[in-house]
Write a structure and sequence with these properties.
- The complex is a heterodimer of chains A (about 300) and B (about 325).
- With about 300 residues, chain A is an all-alpha fold.
- Chain A has one domain (about 90-310): MetI-like (MetI-like fold, Orthogonal Bundle), CATH 1.10.3720.10.
- Helix content of chain A is about 80%, strand content about 0%.
- In chain A, helix 9 packs antiparallel against helix 11 (about 275-305).
- Chain B has a domain at about 245-330.
- Chain B is of the alpha/beta class and about 325 residues long.
- Classes of the chains: A mainly alpha (about 300), B alpha/beta (about 325).
- At the A-B interface, helix 8 and helix 9 of A face helix 2 and helix 3 of B.
């Protein structure tokens, strides 16, 4: 019975995701076109007849609404179109090309964020108002306050240049040494945020009546924390995982550019600078769909963790 | 029946408090200040008093959920005051508690079966899952819950049912003493009676000793063998139920008892009431001498200067008042 409700919920959420996606596509499409310049602008202007031919070849001579509808029609067939800049590739190929690197960096960053964030937050909550707590929270405030485009160069400077321990940039075919700094720079704000979130809700849960009951039962403190407290304290963290994924996806655009990692994010930045309309649109649609899907997954997970939501 | 389970001697719980403002002065809130009493096997001791007199603090200090500041808590002859979590753990089998807020005291993410069965899993790890399940279902029947509800979550139950779960959880290891910290104050009157009767039935069946904390004097009268009256963290009077209710010696007990409504309109109209004036004094700055003197109709200079000690006043009776003899047999 619970399973059927879950499936119905998931189906409803998938349907309601479609309008969201449409709004994202529409906004991205028209904002992209509002930006001055075009994909084929160069230092030296092309002869008018050649320019006309090029524009016609990519249907850029059509009225804007026409291009928009064509793009939507292509999308429904799963066609992201060709890249304007990387002439020999379709957008789908470029995304498929860049995504493994992005996924590794982003996935590792999320993993770090959850493991270290929850761990640090729990430790801080269990030692509330101790020097340990203050140290963790100071670290967390720093992590939240320093933007990643500042943190990344600082990390590079320290570990790459002064200490010469790690490569300053590049992908190195996915070597661990190359991943370390980007993952840290990407994960740090999320670690910090999740640590604060965990600490807050953990302190609240630890002061709740049912934890007192667990102690009165004669449970070991470790069991009280793991069996009773963590489950309750993790709910806000789980619901933050959706926004966290979005933040990591956004952050990866900056981080991949700074560390020169051949991921989707870097294609997005290059696409935006080159006015490579289909590439930018493709990445936007791809990321939007991914974030919507992950948010749905988080909601389902939340339902599994909180019995109160299971039977409405 | 006269073997003493729990002996409390001069128990004190003081909380450090900082008064308002940045760097306010430190002072102590004396939630319990020198409480002594005994509980024998199978008996029930009622603890009554106004809000803020230290009733719940007493419950938690007995179970070492709050560390006592001073004094002894002799459990089966052994002082457990100030024992850490680890040392207390094996002793919690025999010394259990039922909390005031039934729903909030149950883990919302655990099924009823897990909540009741958890102590079994911790203290009797040799039991197999189906044995535990069987024990839990039997116990659910005992406390008046339908055993097929074993997989439900606390929020699916009513307040009274939640308190039955709380009671089942407390007695699953067959303790010797259960401290009930206002177990019915959050429930409807009709449900209160059911829970009280359940507790009394369990007490008879299992030979449980109960410490029953309440501000409801009628309930305490219904189920207690002996009654202890607390005021501002001190014992005012302690005695057998009938003697204490028939002939209260302490002026505070008299005032409390006279405030109990009588369910008969004629008698109720004729009832003589001793009304207390003023508010409960701040426990941060209790009055000198007798703590009750600020609201006591009998207070005089002596009460201001000398703190009355708890003194014997008849068989099994103790009173802390300079003037109790004036109240005797009136």
């Amino acid at each position: 019975m619970a399973a059927r409700i879950m499936i119905a919920f998931a189906a409803r959420r998938c349907l309601s995701a479609l309008p969201t996606l449409l709004i994202v596509i529409t906004l991205a499409f028209f904002m992209m076109r509002l930006a001055p310049g075009g994909p084929f602008d160069q230092e030296r202007a092309l002869p008018p007849e050649i320019e006309r031919n090029v524009l016609a070849a990519y249907n850029l001579d059509q009225p804007l609404w026409r291009q928009y509808l064509d793009y939507l029609a292509d999308l429904t067939r799963g066609d992201f179109g060709p890249s304007f800049k990387y002439r020999d590739f379709t957008v789908a190929e470029l995304i498929a090309n860049g995504f493994p690197a992005s996924l590794q960096i982003g996935g590792l960053a999320m993993l770090c964020a959850i493991v270290f964030g929850v761990g640090l937050g729990t430790v801080a909550a269990l030692h509330q108002n101790s020097p340990l707590d203050y140290t963790v929270m100071t670290f967390a405030m720093t992590g939240i306050a320093v933007p990643n485009f500042v943190m990344a160069p600082l990390l590079t400077l320290l570990f790459g240049v002064y200490l010469s321990l790690l490569p300053v940039a590049g992908w190195g075919d996915g070597a661990w040494a190359n991943k370390l700094l980007p993952v840290i720079a990407l994960a740090l704000p999320q670690v910090a945020y999740i640590a604060r979130l965990t600490r807050g809700s953990m302190i609240e849960v630890l002061n709740s009546n049912y934890i007192r009951t667990a102690r009165a039962k004669g449970l070991r403190e470790g069991l009280v924390v793991t069996r009773h407290a963590v489950k309750g304290a993790l709910l806000p963290v789980v619901s933050y995982l959706g926004p966290a994924t979005a933040a990591v996806a956004t952050g990866s655009v900056v981080i991949e550019t700074i560390f020169d990692i051949p991921g989707t994010g870097r294609y997005f930045v290059e696409g935006a600078l080159n006015r490579d309309y289909p590439l930018v649109m493709g990445v936007v649609v791809f990321y939007a769909a991914m974030i919507i899907a992950l948010n749905l997954a988080v909601d389902l997970l939340y339902g599994l963790m909180d019995p109160k939501l299971r039977r409405p | 029946m006269s073997d003493i389970l729990l002996a409390v001697r001069d128990l004190k719980v003081h909380f450090p408090v900082r008064s308002a403002g940045w760097r306010g002065a430190h002072c102590h809130l004396k939630a319990l200040d020198g409480v002594s009493f005994d509980v024998r096997a199978g008996e029930s001791l009622g603890v009554v008093g106004e809000s803020g007199c230290g009733k719940s603090t007493l419950a938690r200090a007995l179970l070492q959920l709050i560390p006592p500041t001073a004094g002894q808590v002799l459990w089966l002859g052994e002082d457990i005051a100030g024992l850490g979590d680890r040392a207390m753990r094996p002793r919690r089998r025999g010394l259990q508690i039922v909390f005031q807020d039934p729903l909030a005291s149950l883990d919302p993410r655990m099924t009823v079966g897990d909540i009741i069965g958890e102590p079994l899993r911790v203290f009797q790890p040799e039991l197999k899952p189906d044995q535990i399940r069987h024990r839990v279902e039997t116990l659910m029947g005992t406390v008046g819950l339908l055993p097929h509800m074993i997989n439900r979550y606390p929020h699916e139950f009513s307040g009274g049912q939640c308190q039955r779960i709380g009671i089942a959880r407390a007695i699953v290891l067959q303790p010797k003493l259960v401290v009930c910290d206002e177990p019915v104050s959050a429930l409807d009157v009709s449900i209160q009676a059911q829970i009280i009767n359940l507790l009394m039935a369990l007490q008879r069946q299992m030979g449980l000793a109960l410490i029953f904390i309440s501000h409801d004097l009628s309930i305490v009268r219904h189920l207690s063998h002996r009654v202890m009256v607390l005021y501002l963290g001190r014992v005012m009077e302690l005695g057998h139920r009938d003697g204490l209710y028939r002939n209260p010696l302490h002026p505070y007990t008299r005032a409390l008892l006279s405030a109990v409504p009588i369910p008969d309109p004629d008698l109720e109209r004729a009832r003589q009431r001793v009304t207390l004036t003023g508010d409960l004094p701040s426990p941060l700055a209790p009055p000198t001498g007798c703590v009750f003197r600020t609201r006591c109709p009998m207070a005089d200079r002596r009460c201001e200067e000398h703190t009355p000690l708890l003194e014997p006043a008849g068989p099994g009776r103790q009173v802390a008042c300079h003037h109790w003899r004036r109240n005797a047999d009136t």
